[in-house]
Amino acid sequence: MTALDLADPVAVVGTGTIGQGIAQVALVAGHPVRLYDAVPGRAQAAAEAIGARLDRLVEKDRLTGADRDAARTRLSPAESLAELADSHLVVEAVLERLDVKQQLLRELEEIVTDDCLLATNTSSLSVTAIGGALRNPGRFVGLHFFNPAPLLPLVEVVSGFATDVTSATRAYETARAWGKTPVACADTPGFIVNRIARPFYAEAFAVYEAQAADPATIDAVLRESGGFKMGAFELTDLIGQDVNESVTRSVWEAFFQDVRFTPSLAQRRLVESGRHGRKTGRGWYAYGDDAERPEPHTAEKAQPPAYVVAEGDLGPAAELLPLIREASIQVREDEEDNGTRLVLPGGGQLALADGQTSVEFRDVVYFDLALDYRKATRIALSASQDTRPGTLAEAIGLFQALGKDVSVIGDVPGSIVARTVARIIDLAHDAVTKGVATEEDIDTAMRLGVNYPLGPFEWSRKLGKTWAHDLLEELHLRDPSGRYAPSLALYRHAYASDKREGTP
């Protein structure tokens, strides 16, 4: 099944920000586009707003004047649903309420032809449930664009329980013809992105609730060590605390209150207080002309050690060894297998976060995972109250000698980046095993939908087969609520041999 022909009219119902964006995408691709909104005058206003954005594209040399003029002639507001009768695709982008969407689609089904593709842009409701109101749910599909639709490339093409393959394929190919990057997924809570992204927020909030670090420090570590474009606190302020918390709660409830998706009490209090982020002038941070952005905690300058003893290859942190040598710090390699760690001159140990805590051992400092230790500009260290001050000072001095700012956080298992990445990897493996999407589509969705530096499976291959499972297993021992229990999918990935004994 091929994409819609450019001569085929496309209709968008609901002319808010996302509806206008979808209409603009279809329009610039070359389709005749009709806009409808239940509120009189809104469709006309939306058409004018889209026209103004086309003007700006011309000013920026992203669209020719001739193409803009042609697009304007193809765009028309509709005063009634009946005017959408000859549409080949209708995308609804109305209020996120099941009853409202079902009623609208029932009305549309009576108006459009039998071969018209019907689509919803819902981000939080079940595509199957919405389509359940239709006589022919086979032609109904989810087309989840990300806001702003003209700029963000990702489209999740969601097949409901009754969606037929022909309809899903046509929607997929149409999105691709519009210059988007579609990914196919099954109709499960959160689809791909909003399902797998939950730990990015949840683990940052958990570290904060444990009083291990403040928002500014956690955000800085996620950006400067984890490679994320924004930290969880600043990103949710941008999204809107009410919106982000609502999505988390929706996914949690849809999964029958699965503990892996439990909302944050701290975020709930923020929402209840009306501190919704940038749009209200205050969220985790204050906004406004006179607002001061808090600085992350950064350790004072410390003396680097003269040498370190490397026991084991440091696993995902192996690239630290050449960096240490480049900083003119001697690396003595111990041939005995005593684990994977660095031993400091004072006898203390420095180890990559593995889900254990410093207080469980004598004189151990944990350092966080980094996307790229050479490029990272900040590293989080965690130590207990029993860690010798000299050991912590040597650890701080070591990373400072490598050109890193150091943030010392509380003794939380899994640090910040490590626990976050491990949980994202786990949810991704679980999603593939349950038929939500392919590995390739999940990686694409997380990179394009939420700007992750790597997709979960790219990260998993980089870190090693057993890394995420082993870290989560240690976290689960320390928090047996089930939140960190490794999925069966991750266990199989970690410990299934590449070739079973007795097989050719």
From TrEMBL:
Pathways involved: Lipid metabolism; butanoate metabolism
UniProt keywords, alphabetically: Oxidoreductase
Alphabetical list of InterPro entries matching this protein: 3-OHacyl-CoA_DH_NAD-bd, 3HC_DH_C, 3HCDH_RFF, 6-PGluconate_DH-like_C_sf, 6PGD_dom2, NAD(P)-bd_dom_sf
Domain 3-hydroxyacyl-CoA dehydrogenase C-terminal: 190-287, 415-493
GO terms assigned for molecular function: NAD+ binding; oxidoreductase activity, acting on the CH-OH group of donors, NAD or NADP as acceptor
UniProt KW Oxidoreductase keyword: yes
Family: Belongs to the 3-hydroxyacyl-CoA dehydrogenase family.
NCBIfam families for this protein: PRK08268.1 (NF006124)
Protein name: 3-hydroxyacyl-CoA dehydrogenase
Organism, as annotated: Streptomyces flaveus
